Amino acid sequence: MAAPNLLFFSLLTTLYFTTALSNISIKSVDLYPLACSNSNKIQSCNSYLYHISRGLTVEEIANFYSVNASQITEKDRGTRKDYLIEVPCSCKDLNGGTYIYDTRYNIHTNDTFFDVTTNIYSGQALSAAEDGPWDAGKVIPIHLLCGCLQGDSQIVVTYTVQESDTLSGIANILPAQLEAIKNLNAGYGLVRNPGNLQVGWVLFIPMEKNGIRPPKQEQRANYYRHTMLCDTVINGHADHNPSEEKESPAAQRGKSQRHPKEHE
How far is residue 180's CA from residue 59's CA, in Å, rounded to a whole number? Predict the structure, then answer.
């Protein structure tokens, strides 16, 4: 499949906020949404949002994301369960053209954008000036980052980096190809330095719908042959030649009986 022709633009959002629920201090986050335009072949698609568990029930998550509970899938993370939320993603005229999924939120007293996006939407929301002030009782749109890709084998997952995450670990969880993750998140410099992950980064993961394919039969056969050869060399039998083995006396007598000498 040809690499998707996706544009990136940087949207710098500075967050001075510490969430008590996760004990993660987020000082600044660079968001690199997947850009789109009216000329894009893909204007809409289905995608996933990765929700980091904050103790909400599935019903509460469904309400905040404006989806049905059937669109939410559990993701086991050892001591807790996170969630994948399937949403319709579309190209919106926001910040020059961005893939967005919109939900709605009812503002409560003392709510701030940073509190809500971090504790409810895993830091994946964009703040738009046209949404106006955060006044209690007001219902406002929440613009959540999503993405679309060409082809049918992959689906984009919007994922927020957590403590102890590694790129290979994320690729195993979702699952995805490492190089595809690096290329889709070029704004963070992952191609040059894949080990430089920061908590709070919002990545777009091109998850393989059918999982990572196992090696082909021929590749597996070559692997086993290579393994056996290495084992032979390690055990000191690399020059072993069965034809050079010395025959036992019994074997020599048997051969002599089968092929007696001709008498002149």
Answer: 33
Residue 191: partners with Cβ closer than 8 Å, 6 or more residues away:
182, 183
d(CA 212, CA 149) in angstroms, rounded, equals 17
Give the H/E segment covering residue 58: helix 58-65
Contacts of 108 (CB under 8 A, 6+ apart): 136
DSSP 127: P
CB burial of residue 206 (10 Å; 0-12, 13-18, 19+): buried
C-alpha span between 67 and 105 (Å, rounded): 13
Our CA angle for 208, 36, 139, nearest 5°, is 95
Q: Quick: pLDDT tens for 68-125.
A: 999 999 999 888 899 999 999 999 988 889 999 999 999 999 999 999 999 999 999 9
Contact predicate 62/72, CB 8 Å: yes
Kindly state the tokens that stand for 154: 């992959």
